[in-house]
Amino acid sequence: MSEEPDSSQSDDITQISSGLGELDELLNGGFVRGRTYLVQGVSGTGKSMIGQHFLEAGLANEETVVYIHGEESREDILTNARQIGIDIADAEFLDIGPGSDFFAEDISYELVDTADVENERFTKDIKEVIETVNPERVLIDPITQLQYVERDEYQYRKRLQSLIRFLRDHQVTTVATRTVAKGSGNESVYDDFESLSDGVVKLILAESERRITVPKHRGLGQVDGTHGLEIRQQGVEIYPQTLPEHTDRAFDPTSLSTGDDAFDELLGGGIERSAVSFISGPTGIGKSTIAASILHGIAEQDGHVLAYLFEESIEQFTYRCENLGIPIGDLREAGLLDLTEVEPLVQSAEEFGQQVVSEVETHEPDAVLIDGLAGYQLSLQGDSQRLVSRLHGLTRILKNQGVGVLITDQADEITGVPNATSTDTSYIADTIVYLTYVELDGELARAIGVLKKRLGGFDNRFHRFSIVDGSGLQIEGPFDGVHGIMAGTAFDNSGPS
After folding, report:
1. 222 and 330 share one domain
2. Domain count, the chain
3. What are the residues whose beta carbons fall under 8 Å from the beta carbon of 320, sequence distance 6 or more?
4. 290 and 215 in one domain?
5. 291 and 265, same structural domain?
6. What domain range is 331 assigned to?
7. Do 278 and 347 have their domain in common?
8. Are 295 and 185 contained in the same domain?
9. Is 246 inside a domain boundary?
10. pLDDT tens string for the chain (497 positions)?
11. In a domain, 176, yes or no
């Protein structure tokens, strides 16, 4: 949820780009000129890179920028930045870290406290570079370099207050980085600089997943929640949550035929636009095949469909469908079907959501398939709460665009219907088609039924179905006289099977 800006404080402010458009979005427009911001997180989350993007944006705007650094040399910083396509060679650099002579020489201070010597040097050097260069932007990487030379926390806080006031007096927009220790609870680490800053950007590393959140942006508010963050060849990439917006688009519950009369009859006419349909069932029962059959039926009527595969390669999906008589290759060549293979361990749910929304806006499809809810959840590191939130946001956007959404979902139980969906996502579904196995007379049959449909009537009986090579989905009529299918204890009128 986004915090609304405080208009009483925003009349005389000027916002500038952070260098990352998506971070500007989270900040409700970008940094405020002349204010101070903290970027913090554990090592390796991209703090310095965010600061470097900030400086590069200033240079691109012909501003004067200063890089105050204390852990890496200027040469190392420039070399590492070039590797990800960031050019900050024209920045003014101030090194406040200890030189090699600190280790090599035998330096002793017998009459003067070493902290007093160092912090006075820092103060003098920073004051001099600000007054001499008169920069619009400054990066202090890291701010903790100042903490190391103070005698105690009280002196450190006074130094920070004095520094921030000095920078504000000179209308310098400042980004400072701070590293927090692993295991300290990335999200809750707090120190004086956090309270003194006008805004805080927190970077989180949970297992192999990077996240970003903006808990504070004084006077302007921010987009709340955590968002996707990746470090790639061109630097930091941020993927805000896909959130639905109010739309004046007319609701369109028009049915999309599956191309199979028996399946349409079971569904009460087909699947609807502006609706979400789940296809749930145990492994191997044919969820993806049925989803592909629906897409084929829509495409045969000159519809356009997009499919995102979380659990199969495009080649495997195509080969399997072709053997069943579903001409995936022909549909792709005709431009009626676009397949995209998704690697959940590489792509966050936010990045995936933005990709889908962008492609839907470009291609204006009739339907979208997300094949593999388990794979989608894997991109969320198994976080079921975030799964519900992200899937709700994405599907609401697609529904607002008048798109029919298909989602395949794997059930744990081989027989029966223990739960409509594998997670707490059943409320998102407008239609739930459930597949299960039924054992009768020593034989294992497949059953298909509609458990829920918000937008119309449907056949509420379970039907036999099979998947036949060369013919695909075959719906063979209801299980007459059979009871207990949903409970997993099917029996006919003669008694338990």
Report:
1. no
2. 2
3. 288, 289, 312
4. no
5. yes
6. 255-496
7. yes
8. no
9. no
10. 455 554 434 457 899 999 999 999 999 999 999 999 999 999 999 999 999 999 999 999 999 999 999 889 999 999 999 999 999 999 999 998 765 444 445 544 444 444 554 566 778 899 999 999 999 999 999 988 776 666 667 777 888 889 999 999 999 999 999 998 876 444 444 467 888 899 999 999 877 789 999 999 999 999 999 999 999 988 999 999 988 876 556 666 789 999 999 999 999 999 999 999 999 999 999 999 999 999 999 999 999 999 999 989 999 999 999 999 999 999 999 999 999 999 887 888 889 999 999 999 999 999 999 998 888 887 666 566 777 888 899 999 999 999 999 999 988 777 777 776 777 788 899 999 999 998 877 778 899 999 999 988 999 999 999 999 988 999 999 998 787 787 777 677 654 44
11. yes
Please check whether residues 281 and 211 belong to one and the same domain. Answer: no
260 located within any domain: yes
Same domain, 235 and 260: no
Residue 2 lies in a domain: no
Q: What is the value of pTM for the model shown?
A: 0.80
Whether residue 260 sits in one domain with residue 171: no
Residue where a domain terminates, one of 189, 209, 239: 239
For residue 133, what is the domain's CATH number?
Answer: 3.40.50.300
- At which of 187, 215, 239 does a domain end? 239
Q: How far is 351 from 491, CA to CA, in rounded Å?
A: 47
CA-CA distance, 279 to 428, in Å (whole number)? 13
